[in-house]
Write a structure and sequence with these properties.
Order of helices and strands of chain A: EEEHEEEEEHHEH
Strand content of chain A: 25-35%
Radius of gyration of chain B: 20 Å
Oligomer: heterodimer
CATH topology of chain A: OB fold (Dihydrolipoamide Acetyltransferase, E2P)
Order of helices and strands of chain B: EEHEEHEEEHEEHEEEHEHHEEEEEE
Structural class of chain B: alpha+beta
CATH class of chain A: Mainly Beta
Strand order of the largest sheet of chain B: 10-11-12-9-3-13
Largest sheet of chain B: 6 strands, mixed
Number of domains of chain A: 1
C-alpha cells in the first residue's frame, strides 16, 4: 500500500527522492480522510517551497486542507492531470495523481521524514 | 469517524457524492441515533409544548408533527425541533444531539404548567431511510401501510417485529421515513434495512451526505444558519412563527422585531468564480464586508458550488453580485432563489 521508496510526513504527504528531483503527493490515508476531492490548488513552476510550509491546498466536498511540502526546493513541474480531473487524487494518490516535482535545494532534509513502516504505524496509532 | 457532541459518527461510508446521489435517485439510510428526544406528558402537556415553541401546537392533530423553534426570551434560537403529537396529553420532541441537555433544562425552567418533562434520548435510537425508494425498502420490514402515512405524520407500529415510531419526515429534501426504535434493536434493524434496500442500490450514508442533502433543500443546521444570536425571521423561518397563537417564550421580542423589521436575512448563493464559500467565510458587497457564510459546499445534484449566507436585508434577495473571501482572495458569487433543490412531486 505505502511504497517503501517514499518518505512520509505527519501531515500525510509523501516524497519520492530521485537524485536532485523530488516528486510530491498526498497519501492514500489523506485522500481517504478527505473524501471526494473537487479542487487541487498548486504553485506554478518556478515557485520556491520550504519544508513544512504550505505548498497548496486540496479541497474535498467536506473540507479544504493545506498541503505542506515534505522538502524544500523549486517547483519544476505541476501535474496538469489534476486541474481537469481532481478526482484522480482519490483513485491513484501514490501514482498518476502526484502533485508537483521539485528540484531539491537540500536533499538531506528527506532524512527527517518517516519511512513507510513508520508512517503505517503512525496512522495506525492515529485511528 | 468524527467526534460529534460525544458521539462517534461516520462522516462517510462509500463517499459523500455516491451517498448523496443514492438518496436523490434511490434510497439511503442514516444512523441518526445521536438526535435527542424529549417527551412531555400530562394534562398540561399541550400548554407547555405550546408555550416553549413558536409553531401552533393547537393545530396539530394526533399523529401529526411539525417543525418548530425553541427560543430564548430575546428571540434567538435555543434549538430547532420537531414536535410530534402522540396524544392529547403526550408530545414527543426530536431535538439536536448537542442541544439535548440545554433544551431539556430550558423546557423545565419554563414548566409552570406542572407537565412531566423527560429527557428520553437514551431510550431511542433513530434511523432515517430517505429517497424515492425509501417507502419500498421500509415496507418490506413493517406491516404498517406506509403509503397511508402523509408527509409530516407518524404512527406507532412495528419494524422487524420491534415496536417503533414511524414518521414520514426527513432532513434530505426527499420523501422518506425517520424511525425511532429501542437502542438494543437498532443495529439489527440497520442491517435489515440495508438488506431490504439492496435491490434498489441502497447506501449507508454519513454526516457528510446528510449535510449536502439538507443544504440543497435549504434546511437549517443549528450552529450554522441558526443559534442563540439569530431569530426565526432572520433565518427566513417566519413560517414557523405563529405570533397570533398566544403567549410563548420569545414572542415579545419577535413582535418588536416584526414591527421594526429585521436588519439581516439568510439568503442562498451560487459561486461564479472558482472556489467554495464555506462556513464562516466573510461576504463582501462592493468591496465592503457585509455578512458571513453559514454553510457552503459543492452541490452533487446541481453540480454547482452553493451556500447560504447572512446579508443586510436590503441585499438579501436573488440576483445580488457578492464576493466571498476564500483564503484571502475575493471570489465572485451571486445570490439565488432557494431552495436550491426541490423534489418533483
Amino acid at each position: 500500500m505505502y511504497p517503501e521508496n517514499f518518505r512520509y510526513t505527519k501531515e500525510h504527504e509523501w516524497v519520492l527522492v530521485e537524485g536532485y528531483t523530488g516528486t510530491i503527493g498526498i497519501t492514500d490515508h489523506a485522500q481517504e480522510e478527505l473524501g471526494d476531492i473537487v479542487y487541487v490548488d498548486l504553485p506554478k513552476p518556478g515557485a520556491h517551497v520550504d519544508q513544512g510550509k504550505s505548498l497548496g491546498s486540496v479541497e474535498s466536498v467536506k473540507a479544504v486542507s493545506d498541503v505542506y511540502s515534505p522538502v524544500s526546493g523549486e517547483v519544476t513541474e505541476v501535474n496538469q492531470l489534476l486541474a481537469d480531473s481532481p478526482e484522480k487524487l482519490n483513485q491513484d494518490p501514490h501514482g498518476a495523481a502526484w502533485l508537483v516535482k521539485i528540484r531539491l535545494s537540500a536533499p538531506a532534509e528527506a532524512a527527517n521524514l518517516m519511512t513507510a513502516a513508520d508512517y503505517q504505524s503512525y496512522i495506525g496509532a492515529e485511528k | 469517524m468524527v467526534d460529534f457532541g460525544g458521539w462517534d459518527m461516520p462522516v462517510q461510508y462509500s463517499g459523500i457524492i455516491e451517498e448523496h446521489n443514492a438518496v436523490r435517485r434511490a434510497v439511503g439510510v442514516f444512523d441518526v441515533s445521536h438526535m435527542g428526544e424529549i417527551e412531555i406528558r400530562g394534562p398540561q402537556a399541550a400548554a407547555l409544548a405550546d408555550f416553549v415553541t413558536t409553531n401552533n401546537v393547537a393545530k396539530l392533530k394526533m399523529g401529526q408533527a411539525h417543525y418548530s423553534g425553541l427560543l430564548y426570551e430575546h428571540g434567538g434560537f435555543v434549538d430547532d425541533i420537531l414536535v410530534h403529537k402522540v396524544a392529547e396529553d403526550h408530545f414527543f420532541l426530536c431535538v439536536n444531539a448537542s442541544n439535548q441537555d440545554k433544551d431539556f433544562e430550558h423546557i423545565r425552567a419554563h414548566n409552570r404548567f406542572d407537565a412531566e418533562v423527560e429527557n428520553a434520548g437514551p431510550r431511542y435510537a433513530q434511523l432515517a431511510i430517505q429517497g424515492p425508494r425509501a417507502q419500498a425498502t421500509l415496507q418490506k420490514l413493517t406491516p404498517v401501510d406506509l403509503g397511508a402515512i402523509r408527509y409530516y405524520w407518524f404512527t406507532d407500529g412495528e419494524v422487524a417485529g420491534t415496536p417503533a415510531c414511524i414518521a414520514h419526515t426527513g432532513y434530505t429534501g426527499e420523501a422518506g421515513f425517520e424511525i425511532y426504535v429501542p437502542p438494543g434493536e437498532a443495529e439489527r434493524i440497520w442491517r435489515l434495512v440495508l438488506e431490504a434496500g439492496a435491490g434498489f442500490g441502497i447506501r449507508p450514508c454519513g454526516l457528510g451526505a446528510r449535510n449536502t442533502l439538507r443544504l440543497e433543500a435549504k434546511m437549517a443546521l443549528y450552529g450554522h444558519e441558526i443559534d442563540a444570536s439569530i431569530s426565526p425571521f432572520e433565518a427566513d423561518l417566519g413560517w414557523i412563527v405563529k405570533l397570533d397563537k398566544g403567549e410563548f417564550v420569545g414572542r415579545d421580542a419577535l413582535v418588536r422585531q416584526k414591527e421594526s423589521g429585521v436588519t439581516r436575512k439568510l439568503v442562498g448563493f451560487e459561486m461564479r468564480g472558482r472556489g467554495i464559500g464555506r462556513d464562516g467565510y466573510e461576504v463582501y458587497l462592493g468591496g465592503t464586508p457585509a455578512g458571513w457564510v453559514t454553510s457552503g459546499s459543492p452541490s452533487p445534484t446541481l453540480c454547482k458550488n452553493i451556500g447560504l449566507c447572512y446579508l443586510p436585508i436590503e441585499h438579501a434577495l436573488a440576483g445580488e453580485a457578492i464576493q466571498i473571501m476564500i483564503r484571502n482572495q475575493p471570489v465572485d458569487a451571486v445570490t439565488v432563489e432557494t431552495p436550491f433543490y426541490k423534489r418533483a412531486k
